[in-house]
Amino acid sequence: MSPRVLLNDDGPPGPQSPYIYGLYRHLTTNLRWDVKVVVPSSQKSWIGKAFHIKEITKGRYYYPQEPDGMGEVSSTSRPLNDGEVAEWVLLDGTPATCTNIALHNIYPGIIDLVISGPNLGRNSSAAFAMSSGTIGAAMSSALSQIRSVAISYGTVLHPTPNELFEPADILSGRIIQYLWNNWGKDLGGMRNGEIDMYNVNVPMIMELLNPEGIDVYWTHMWRNSYGQLFKAVSIPDATSETRDVPNKGSDVAAGQYPVQQSELGGDASKDESATLVFKFSPDIQPLITPSIGSVPLGSDGWAIAKGHASITPLRACFAHVDYHAAVGTESLRILKL
Q: Using an 8 Å Cβ cutoff, are 123 and 129 in contact?
């Protein structure tokens, strides 16, 4: 039986979310799945599984059109106009917020599977996964005990050729369909002993056009790390309405990130005496192009470096360490200071 699907991403169709409409059309037209779409109203990369808890989350309706999913926004639901494909929902919230509201408020009790993505750029390795709004949305679903798959299209070529979009969507559809029909078991899973969620990465490379496509590997997550993500800036730089990314790697979305005001005192750029002023400016090139010998064999980072798609089963948790003192009887677990 086909699942009833919720599709989410870091934002609506546009330069920083160019893949969601193509995958939506593939799932609905070719696989004939029933797909609902609830996405953030603006781009929300690098926000993890954050929720909006102080803000009032407001929504609008969105009506994508061919060929790229760009469409009209309406404050009220209305019938489709000529050329419009569907009615989507935009929420002024994070990807994880959108997932939870969609599952429990907009479409309660009718979603079987959440697909988060496709993200613009890879979400392989711990450094990216722990920061990813795409994975955060899938984890939000898993914590509501709904199956979820996070999909990311790793940027390799600049710009990514448009002819790679469709084969990536076809491969992703095959992977998602396989996972739905063959969902794995995990005795530690929260939902009937099933795997909580999957993280899928597809490299956007020319080999996708080959008749045989690219190989798909089961992987584990590469546990890597990052260093400095922010740079100190002067007050004039802080007045900019965007956070520039001068040292962006191949998987950081082109363009700039919108500024978010601090909860502690508003906009520091208005205080000429401020000395603690920083902008998001990551140099993540070492995470994008590591030496192949430094990446663990069988990891998601290894797979994308070799030109393979990857599937990584995940638990929706900060995994604990199987430390010797954390097992056994109750008396053996006591720490004697």
A: yes
The b/e string for 274-298 (b: 16+ C-beta within 10 A; e otherwise) is: eeebebbbbbbeebbebeeeebeee
**How would residue 257 be classed by pLDDT, with cut points 50, 70 and 90?**
very low
Q: What is the rounded distance in angstroms from the CA atom of residue 106 to the CA atom of residue 89?
A: 9
Residue 33 above 70 pLDDT? yes
pLDDT digit string, tens, across residues 271-315: 666 789 999 998 878 788 888 888 899 999 999 999 999 999 999
Alpha-carbon distance of 261 to 329, in angstroms, equals: 49
Beta carbons of 251 and 121 less than 8 angstroms apart: yes
Against a cut of 0.85, is the pTM above it? Answer: yes
Give me the residue label for tokens 């898993």: 142
Whether 194 and 185 have beta carbons less than 8 Å apart is answered as yes
Q: Kindly state the DSSP code that residue 29 receives in the 8-state scheme.
A: I
With cut-offs at 50, 70 and 90, classify the pLDDT of residue 154: very high
CA–CA dist 214, 89 (Å, integer): 34
Q: Cβ atoms within 10 A of the Cβ of 327, count?
A: 9
Q: Give residue 141's pLDDT.
A: 97
Sheet of 113-120, strand order? 71-74, 59-64, 88-91, 34-40, 4-8, 113-120, 147-154, 197-203, 309-314, 216-218
Q: How far is CA 100 from CA 49, 55, 192, 197, 240, in A?
A: 11, 15, 20, 15, 33
Q: Which two tokens stand for residue 182?
A: 């063959």
Contacts of 255-258 with C-beta under 8 Å, sequence gap 24+, read 255/15, 255/16, 257/43, 257/45, 257/46, 258/42, 258/43
pLDDT at 243: 45
Q: How many C-beta neighbours within 10 Å does residue 316 have? A: 21
Read off the DSSP letter of residue 324: G
Tens of pLDDT along 40-80? 998 888 899 999 888 999 999 999 999 999 999 999 999 99
- If one counts every other C-beta atom within 10 angstroms of the C-beta of residue 268, the result is 18
How many angstroms separate the CA atoms of 96 and 114, rounded?
A: 11
